[in-house]
Every structure is written in C-alpha cells, then in structure tokens.
Design a protein that fits this description.
heterodimer; A: about 250 residues; alpha/beta; Rossmann fold; 4-stranded antiparallel beta sheet; B: about 425 residues; 16 helices
Chain lengths: ~250, ~425
Amino acid sequence: MNHPAIKIQGLSFQYPQQEGLYFRNFNLQIGAGERFGLFGPNGAGKTTLMNLMAGLLSYEEGSIQLLGQEIRNHPKSTNRKFGFVPQDFSFYPELSPRDNLAFYGAWYGLTKKHIQKRSAELLEILGLTTVADKELRSFSGGMKRRFNLAIGVIHEPEVLFLDEPTVGVDVQSRHAIIHYLKELNNKGATLIYTSHQLEEAAGLCTTVALMDDGKIIAQDRLDELLVKHGHEGMEALFLDLTGKSFRD
Amino acid sequence: MHILKATIVKDLKILRRDRVGLTMMFFMPILLVMVITSVQNSTFELVNNNKISLVISNRDRGPLGKTLTAGIGKIGMFNIQEADSIQTEDNISTEMHNRNALVVLLIPSGFSSYIQHKADDIATRALSDPDSIQPAQVTPAPLPDSLKMYYHPVMQPAFRQSIQGALESAVQVIQGETIVKKLYQTVNQREVPADLEKQILLSRQPISEIPVSRSGTRFVPNASQHNVPAWTIFAMFFIVTSLGGSIVREKNSGSFIRLKTLPASYLYALFSKQIVYLMVTMSQAIVIFAIGNKIFPFLGLPALNIPEEWIGLFCVTFACGYCAVSYAIAVGVFAKTGEQSNGFGVISILIMAALGGLLVPSFAMPAHLQNIIQISPLHWALEAYYSLFLEGGKLRDIWMNILSLVGIAVLFQLITLYQLKKKNLI
C-alpha cells in the first residue's frame, strides 16, 4: 500500500509558555515522490511546520504521519526514513567533511563501508572532494551549504526536509544544490522544501502550498495555481495571495 | 556499538583540535601542582629542617637569663642571635627586619631573681610542717615584666603555638632545675654535687618520632605526598570547564538540531563524552603522578612515592574521574550558555574543594561543617588518596570512599537523565 509522504490531520500546536495556537485544525497531504514547496512570508509557520514534521517539536492534538507512521512517540528507527537539512549549518566545524560524514553516517545506521562509498559519491557530486580532509570552519558559505545538504542525504532518505537550503550561496552552489535535489527526486525521494527564493522554487517544485498566519491559503500544482490566479510568475502570485504589508 | 565507536572517534578528534581545552586540562594542573608543592615544600622545610631565626634580648643581670638562652639553643629548633641593642620596644621591628628574624624573645631584667625567689618560696612551703597551724613564712616573690615573644604577623597560629610551647618548655626546665637545687640545698645544707646536677640537667626523656603507616613503611610524609594527590583531584574536577562547555556548545549549535532528528538516542553522545573524558581524567592522574615521581626530584622537590596498592590507586582514580565527568555532564546539560557552565562549574568546584579539605584540612573545620563535607566528592577522593599515599592503606581501607564516590556519581547521572527527559531529549 502506497502511503503519502506526509499526512497531517486536525493538527493543533502551541509553543510552550506562549499564548494562542500556532496551528489550529491544520490539514496537509504531500504525495510520495513529489517536489513540494512550502512558501509564505516571515512568521507564516513554515519552519515550525517543518520541525513538527521532522519530530523536533511535539504536539498534543491531531496527527502527523510520515509514510504512514505517526510521528508522535514514534520509534527512533523511523527517523531513518527521512533526512533533514536545517537552515543553520548543522555539523561539527572543527572536523573535516569526511569525519563529519563518518559520524552522521554511523548515527543513521550505515556500515563503515557504505559510509565510505556514499561519502566519496556525495563529496564528488557536491564538488568537495579536494577539501574532504580540511576543517569545515575554513570553508566558504557556499561550500558549507553544500556540505549541510550532504549530511542530510547520506543515508538516501525517502523523504527529505529542506529548510532554505540555498540561503546565502552563490549562483554556482545554488545550481549544484538544485541539480542534485532533482536527481534525488528522480530516484524516488520526496522533497519538502521551504525558501524565499521564489524563482528558484518555481524551477524546482512541482506542487506548492502558500502559508500565512499558520494556515494554508493555496495549494496545487504550480502551473495550475498560476493559471487559476492569472499570474505568470511566482512572485506576483505570492504578493497577490499574501499581500504587500511587512511581516517582521 | 558502531554508533558509540564513531561518536568516541568524533569526540576524540574534536578534543585533539581543542588546544586551549587540552592546555587547561593538562598543562595548567601540572603547573598548579608544581607551584603549590614548591610553596608547601618550603613551609615543610621551614618546620622540619630549617631553624627558625630567633633574636633574644637578655636584659637579665643574673645567671638564669643566660641559662635560658643556652637552654633554648639546646632545643635545636632555633637559630639564635643575641641582641643587646634592643633597648626599647620601638626598635624591635627594625631589629627583626635587619636580622631577618621571625621571632624576638625579650628576657626581662630581674628574671633570675624572680625564678630564684619562686624556688625559695616553693622549697620553704614544701619543707614546712604540714600539721603546723601557722603556715610557713614565705618570701613574697617579686613581679618583674613577663617574658615577651614578638612574632612576624605572617606566622600561622599553629606554627606560633609550637614556638611558644618550645620556649615555655625551656623556661619550665630552668624553673624545675632551680627548685630541685634549692630543695637539695635546704635539706642537705650544701650545694648540689656536680655529677648530680649533671644528671638533673640530662634527665629529660627524649621522644622519638616515627611515622606510622598501615603498610608498615616508614617514609616521612613530604609536601609532594600531601599536595600532588590533592591537586590531581582538583584537576580532574576542573574538566567541568572543558566538558561542560563542550556540551553547551553542542546543544546551542546546529549539529544538535540534526542529532535530534537522527535514528539514535542522544544518550550515545553523552555516553561517548563520558568515556572520552574519563580517559582524560585517568591520563591527567597518570601524567601528574609520573611528573611527581620522576621530574620533581630534578626540580629540587621531594619525589612523590607511588603507593604499592596499585589496584586501590586505580579504583580511586577511576571512581574520582567518573564522578568528575558525571558532574561536568550534569552542569553542561543544565547550563544554557557557556558562561553559565564555566561560572557555576568553577565556583562550585572551588566550594567542593574547600569542603573536601583541599584548602584547609577537614578535621580543622568547624563542627557545623563536619556533616556537610560528606557531600563533597573531593572529600572522599582526598581521604582515599591520603590513605594510600600517606598511610600506606590497602583497598580494604578505602572501599567505603570508592563506594561513596560512585554513589555521588550515580546521583549526578540520575539528575542529568531527569533533565534530559524533562527537555524531551531522550
């Protein structure tokens, strides 16, 4: 039986010691194998939703299923099914890429041999082979961003959460990252992606959802959404649906 | 096992690259042990080997002032300088400074006549008829100035009291001799024969000092035996600055977010740190003990004698290291910032060191602190090390200390687990 990659039903969530619900009776379904983009202005709830789907935040009401498995109180082994690429650099900067991959690969349950093979592949694809044994703290922003992605995909996950994976990188690094993400999707991985780079998103995502104030305000295939609202590009659609006021 | 191994390798690599942390954990404790042992060694030598510089100003015109000076000289504890130049109390400070003296003894004028009058008085009373209604006619003793001991203000009370005790004993010897002579004269109506006087003078019973150890060894405790084990314990607990900080850094870094999404428990990360830093504490002890044993003699310091009870030494060091690591992890898990971890960690270790007897011996602490010192793991570790290093104790003599250290460590671990559970990290 094919499960959707993500199925959220009746989710309510509130940050501890904060008044008001962040999500109220929230529903969302993302099909397996999709390239799904989650967009919205600052504070719309994209990162919170991503953290809930990845099990970083716990919820009391409603249900979040990842490939048919409830995320709340799930066994740790379920985490092998997904990869997470957070917005912040999440590796040990004192270590080299190879050392970092050896550590994270082991935590994903890969054998030493498998880690070596995957590390060599990823470092080659992401253009980091020549610096594989150098300390990450000496890397440029683009190199760090590429490596941040490598850790999240070392175990070849079925679902990959990407929270602004290309923020602050040059065109070359962005191109390499997007190209690799498409390759992963072609091999069957579901991509769940947030970004403020709307043109980049238009090139990557097949399905998009626009969020504002903890709610989905539009969700469909990107081309159909553009036609439905009479816009030619993502930016015009975004401004049309979320308005022009600041959201600081 | 593969996860734990990979995590240990990661932690070792990070530690190897943390040069400042390694310096704090190895070089600084070695320096601390060397400096404190050197300082304490000079005090030990001052008390045990060096003579105390004593200036005697004898204002007495009779014979007993000189006899007292000679008697003090025979104690063997003082390097005596006689100074007649001290005419008033105002120039005592100048004389002390010029002669580099720690103590000045002022023998007042009339000292001889006072002692002799006192002897007459005692002899008269001792030989009077006990059944007589009328008390024996006694000669009232004159009251000269008392003997005065001036001392340098840096002298510790215990050291000062030992000097005062030695001087009092010299005075008592003279008093006793004078009384015995007077009694002999009164009874026999002649002077004490020279050979008897000599016997009276030599009648003091010498006391032999022998250090007693549980193992039967007779080596004399020195500054190294006292200080190296004590400050090694301090060094082990001082890893709170490195380990606590490392946990806080990891918690506040992006890598921690990723760790929480991985299919393995965060306990692997903490267990790995325990193993790595337990190795660090054991290495600290080995390095510091080795330096104490092999290098100290080249620096003019007494060599540290390593106890023969190797198993006991290993068990105490292991238990102490385990306790230190557990404490550092608890601090790191609770602290939100590096400043919190370092500030609380360092101050709390200093408090535990003070309570544990590293700064002042536990037995010298006030009664209300005697129960509180039991909660300091440094107290149990220090007692165990002193048993091994100073008393030649065996494993059976320190098992209670080891058990207490492990018990305190388990308590720290439970507190850590509670906090991790509360924060939903395990």
